[in-house]
Amino acid sequence: AAGVIQSPRHLIKEKRETATLKCYPIPRHDTVYWYQQGPGQDPQFLISFYEKMQSDKGSIPDRFSAQQFSDYHSELNMSSLELGDSALYFCASSLDTEAFFGQGTRLTVV
Amino acid sequence: AQTVTQSQPEMSVQEAETVTLSCTYDTSESDYYLFWYKQPPSRQMILVIRQEAYKQQNATENRFSVNFQKAAKSFSLKISDSQLGDAAMYFCAYKADSWGKLQFGAGTQVVVTP
Question: What integer pLDDT is reported at residue B98 of this predicted model?
């Protein structure tokens, strides 16, 4: 069965650089979520999209932006990276109640 | 404020034994959804079990079962016949509606000893 695909799996950036994380949801899933999980923490909701429109927004810094494209894939753009942005970033997709998670992108800011 | 509370940072269990993880939550909604997710060392988030608040019957998935107490806002997970592969961080999560975001607890690390 198809799963949620995230790329890249690992990313190393320097402070003040920009990063783009990509998410390809399960086919026919209409909702995409982004979560950030810091070391030793629970995942924190960043933003979600339903049918390519932003549906909810959490504690996402103004330096971050995201969008969902016509083919339903989503990208999380992160600018002016800070050391504190180092985390595991999850994308999840759903068609109804159950959210399926990708394997995550581990971002390290040095 | 944290909507979901897991008060046990770590639980240890011997193989073949049973362990129960506790979770409480705060909501004013009457209909909502509750989940337990497992995060092994690979960091993959894996759904273990789900419970719809409107269902009185407790959910069961093989060796995993829940005790859902709606009035007490409690949602505990029981792992029976524990296996080494059950060792992971377990997160309790709340969802207000079917399309909404997940709100996670702080997690409980389950350690399985031979």
Answer: 84
